[in-house]
Every structure is written in C-alpha cells, then in structure tokens.
Amino acid sequence: MNSEKEKSQNQNLIEKAKTFLGKSIMISLKDQRRIAGTFECFDKQGNIVVSNAAEESKMKSGDFLRRKIGNVIIPYDFIENCFAQKNL
C-alpha cells in the first residue's frame, strides 16, 4: 500500500500536471516520434490525451515529417519525455 508520504507526493504531482491542462505540449515517444498538441487530460495509469495533435517523424535526412492526426491517446509505456509550456 502507498504510505501517506507517497500519496501526498502523488497528489502534488497531479496538481502540478493540472496547471498544464489546455496548454501546448510536446511528447517524445520511445520510437523517436514526437506528438505536439494541446494537453487535455491524463488518467491514473499515466496515459495522456492530446487534442489538435500533429505527429513528427524523423526522416533519414534529419528533418521531421509532420502530419496532423487530431485527437490521440498516448499510452504511458510509449512516453520518453514530455514538455509543456505553462504560460503562452
């Protein structure tokens, strides 16, 4: 079971994440793709929902190919890094 300290730490992380709701977000995936869009929500498993999403795939030339994908759920296990801009 989670100790009270762990529960408190988790609650603090959740509150921090809530400050980024509706903000621009960039998620790096483990397969080298990136997803950019608007941070809509997350669940207790750590999956993230992004709206107005665009996928960026790195090409052999080093450039990124970008395509719009709309709304997307990104599984926690696929996430490498996540960057958000709090103040636009």
UniProtKB/TrEMBL annotation:
<dbReference type="InterPro" id="IPR001163">
    <property type="entry name" value="Sm_dom_euk/arc"/>
</dbReference>
<dbReference type="Pfam" id="PF01423">
    <property type="entry name" value="LSM"/>
</dbReference>
<dbReference type="InterPro" id="IPR010920">
    <property type="entry name" value="LSM_dom_sf"/>
</dbReference>
<protein>
    <recommendedName>
        <fullName>Sm domain-containing protein</fullName>
    </recommendedName>
</protein>
<feature type="domain" description="Sm">
    <location>
        <begin position="18"/>
        <end position="75"/>
    </location>
</feature>
